[in-house]
Amino acid sequence: MGYPEWDRSREPGEGYYSGRRDRTPRPVRRQEEEEDESTDYAAAFIATGCWYVVPLIGYVIWAATLSSQPRPGCVDAFGVQCPAPRAEAFTNLLDGVPQLAVALALGIVVAMFLGWATSGWRAWTIGFASAVLGAGMATVIFAVLATQF
Fold this sequence. Notes:
Radius of gyration: 30 Å
Strand content: under 5%
Largest sheet: none
Number of strands: 0
Distance between the termini: 77 Å
Structural class: mainly alpha
Oligomer: single chain
Helix content: 55-70%
């Protein structure tokens, strides 16, 4: 510490003024200390989308295990044979895509807010929280709209 010319712990000719490189080891910075606490918004958006994909994959696997044959003797009010359970499940999935898109969009908006409002949350945590909140908000919005129209 202090000025190099006053430092008595070094041999003469060592240090800054000698032209030779100082051999004293520098403290190693840990990776945790170097990590920036700012939120990676793109990773939070991707994580939000992944939390929507997980149940979607489960639904598709479940729908694929259903029978492809219509139930025997099943007819609707017009006398037309009922669709197969698998076809009905995939039709319901495709009918729900607009609502899923709205829920995902709300989830991404919530992820932007959570990324700004929190510090220290990782992208997967922000993604999970925003997916849950976005899906809940979409459910409330669609329930209110269903009663109004």
